[in-house]
Amino acid sequence: MRRNILLLAIITAVSAPVVASESNAFRLGVGYSETDIEVLSNSDDYGTGFKVELGYDVNPYVGIKLSYEQNEGDIGSTNVSYEGSTVKGGFDLGYPVESPIGVFKPYVTLGFSGYSEESNLLGGSRFSSSQFYYGIGARYTSSVNVYLDLSYDLFEVEDAVLSYDMTQLAFTVGYQF
Question: What InterPro entries does the annotation carry (predicted)?
């Protein structure tokens, strides 16, 4: 019993500076996005593009985020080109670690996404899909409120014929208000 109380006291003492840090903060960022696709155990680069994100830290541990990613590219050595866009809304849950120069927060994320795509395949095709996504990431916020965020998200997209896994790796730079 005494060990549990001591452990709880240590955790509380270590966590107190993090809880006391600024929360309830908005953040806005832009960055680079790369999408990969896996169909029938074959993985392929599915384009690069940009990402725009808006976030709100409910408290130091939980954040809400909304993002838009647009990627375009060609499929392998074919003449098939496409443009895909993803809208995501979700939560991140992590444990912030403070230092004299800022806060580092590794996190897991879960949310809902909508993906749409247009391609020149067969004279032009379109489809869209809605699904849950999950991922991991890490965000560093400097003492001057500039942040760097690296995230990796995974979701499964289904069209009329196939179901396939998509992953998105993004690096975002932004400002926390």
Answer: Beta-barrel_OMP, OMP/PagP_B-barrel
